[in-house]
Amino acid sequence: MTNEHLLNRALGAYLGFACGDALGATVEFMTPKQIQKRHGVHRNIIGGGWLGLEAGQITDDTQMSLALGQAIIDHMDWNIEAVADNFVTWLASNPPDIGNTCRRGIMRYRDSGELYGLPRDDDAGNGACMRNLPVVLATLNRPDLFRLWSLQQSHITHNNPLSDAATLTLGLIVKHLITLGDSDACQQESDALLNQYSQFSYTPYLGKASAYIVDTVQTVLHYFFSTDSFESCLIATVNQGGDADTTGALAGMLAGAKYGVQQIPDRWLKQLDSAVAVNIRRQTTELIKLTQL
Ligand code: MN
Ligand code: MN
Predict the structure, then answer these.
(1) Rounded to the nearest whole angstrom, what is the distance from the C-alpha of residue 204 to the centroid of ligand 1?
(2) Distance (Å, rounded) from C-alpha 257 to C-alpha 215?
(3) pLDDT tens digits for 118-154?
(4) β-sheet bridge partners, residue 202
(5) Predicted structure pTM score
(6) Which ligand is nearest to the CA of 61?
(7) Which domain holds residue 36?
């Protein structure tokens, strides 16, 4: 695959992620019925939602990803303290939204310098998984570093085997899509996850789309594997409601990597916060450079 192809898919993943966040935030915490009543089919980036967002504004999912990506770029290498410090700076910026587990972990680091908490059953939210794309982009050709960096950044806030397994699996799926453009490899990663933790099984899909990492992964994989375009994947995912900005972001990450940046609808790219879009394009180019060192 040429570098141009690689960049196209990497950019598709990161911009697709942000578009999913901005699209899904409007219907976060709604049920499919409530969404249908209010929007028919929700298909445009219009802002609003419980956070009262501007159209195109993104939430914690994209902000934390950018904070992580910037820490890697600033050092052109891995520096876990820099990652945690960027999370502290982000927390202090009074973000529109933050998950409880993320807040607790970042405050622990801020107050004690501890880079990870003890393993906890209730750390099985989707907050670590949702922000890992910059690690994937920086380690496309270094599986050992992918694993180490993914787990270290995750454990700042979430120390839980289900969260770890989901973060690694979605990361490997994106990597296969970006480097190989190969769906068979993706299905194999998904099968391997289900073999290890059968609770992630998404067939039949039961329609739960909460921030519990198991529900999140079921929703994202179900709609990713059962749709055939970027747009149909994202629309189906966010209209499931629940943690729709995060399921939308993760589905957008996979679909963007699969279909490439040119398949992201223009109306979504135009609406996306332009400063965020510029930042994502810059980070993607820089992170890919690190992969090719
Ligand atoms: Mn969010
Ligand atoms: Mn969310």
Answers:
(1) 27
(2) 22
(3) 999 989 999 999 999 999 999 999 999 999 999 999 9
(4) none
(5) 0.98
(6) 1
(7) 3-291
pLDDT tens-place string over residues 10-39: 999 999 999 999 999 999 999 999 999 999
Q: Which of 95, 157, 82, 151 is nearest to 120 (CA)?
A: 157
At 119 the three-state DSSP class reads: coil
Spatial neighbors of 60 by CB under 8 A, at least 6 apart, are 95, 96, 97, 98, 99, 102
CA of 3 to the centre of ligand 2 (A): 32
Give the total residue count for the chain.
293
Distance 242 CA to ligand 2 centre (A): 8
Q: For residue 204, is the peptide bond before it cis, meaning its omega torsion is within 30 degrees of 0? A: yes
Torsion of CA 19, 22, 24, 27, to 10 degrees: -160
What are the distances in angstroms from CA 82 to CA 36, 122, 152, 224?
43, 26, 12, 33
Residue 190's identity, in one-letter code, is: S
Rounded CA-CA distance 288/293 in Å is 9
Which are the contacts of 106, defined by CB distance < 8 A and separation ≥ 6? 84, 87, 88, 90, 91, 156, 157
Span from the CA of 292 to the centroid of ligand 1 (angstroms): 31
Buried b (16+ CB within 10 A) or exposed e, 18-49: bbbbbbbbbbbebeeeebeeebeebbebbbeb
CA-CA distance, 83 to 181, in Å (whole number)? 29
Query: Which CATH number goes with the domain that contains 67?
Result: 1.10.4080.10
Ligand 2 ion local residues (Cβ < 5 A): 243, 245-246
Q: How many domains is the chain partitioned into structurally?
A: 1
For residue 100, report the distance from its CA to the centre of ligand 1, in Å: 12
